[in-house]
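Please annotate this fold before class:
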Amino acid sequence: MPAITPPFPRRSAVVLAVLPLLTLTACGYGSEARSDDTAKVAPGAEKIDGLGSVKIGYFPNLTHGTALVGRERGLFQKELGATKAEYATFNAGPSEIEALNSGSIDIGWIGPSPAINGYTRSGGKLLRIIGGSASGGVKLVVDPKKIRSLKDVRGKRIATPQLGNTQDVAFLDWAAGQGWKVDPQSGKGDVTVVRSDNKVTPDAFRSGSVDGAWVPEPTASRLVSEGGRVLLDESSLWPGDKFVITNIVVRQAFLREHPKAVEAVLKASVEANKWINAEPEQAKRAVNRQLADDSGKALPADVLDPAWKSVRFTDDPLAATLGTEAAHAVRTGLLEKPDLKGIYDLTILDTVLRAEGESPVDAAGLGTS
């Protein structure tokens, strides 16, 4: 399937300005779309907006726990009626954004930096953020034999998941706050930033080729299980210990044409978060079952338990923190100042929340109206 074709400015986005979009197998992106075979369609259920299916994307990652629970418990299928819930999983934000652009998925769970990239690189035409999903779950884990304090990070090799991704931006901004100089493209400077896929970072840490990593869960807890020590929890750097790590995004065309389907997915998302927060132990096990189904392997307890405790699930997109994260990217030299006005459309989410007796959420001045 084709990549995004409009002639976007070279430095209009964090990752997509410096990385090629990923071309993957199956539909062209991520894993092959699959129907939710475990969820039964209720007798007499009708298709929403006449749609045969709604295609949902997410990462097989704890910070995407809302989507994992929604799928594992059949919540998306329940709300969609006879319209099939189909799924695709991704390992990187750029590939999910490309799938959204191509129409390979309609709605997706994704991190803030890719959402900013997709919005700004398309001139504000590709996506809207329609809800929140998770906060926190990011840590700086180090080799305690090499790094005993924050000042010891200087001169060391620290892994981040990907050039310009959410954690890469956060680490570069934190390093700049320490007064250290690092070239954002090469990662070289007073501290060396090693861009390393989360799947291989534990091996790199074990071999000593990196001295630490600024990574999301469950990678952070995997490193701890390998003898690492949490030196810093990113939540401690944010007001109220809250910052957005996962959003829900939708193609703008799909939002315009099928608002009832979008509402159904958001109802399921709100129900999933409500259950996660009410039954955290059951939810943890449900997430692990879906992770095992998606990746072929469940997380061991010594990784799952501490990782789960550090992620907060919320319907609030924490919009003010998205603006701050964009400012961090600008400050580190990975992003020109973006116009994010209109990136949020929380109208349907607020309708769903009010029906649940909950308060509406704030777009922090970045909404469509």
Observations:
- The two ends are 34 Å apart (CA to CA).
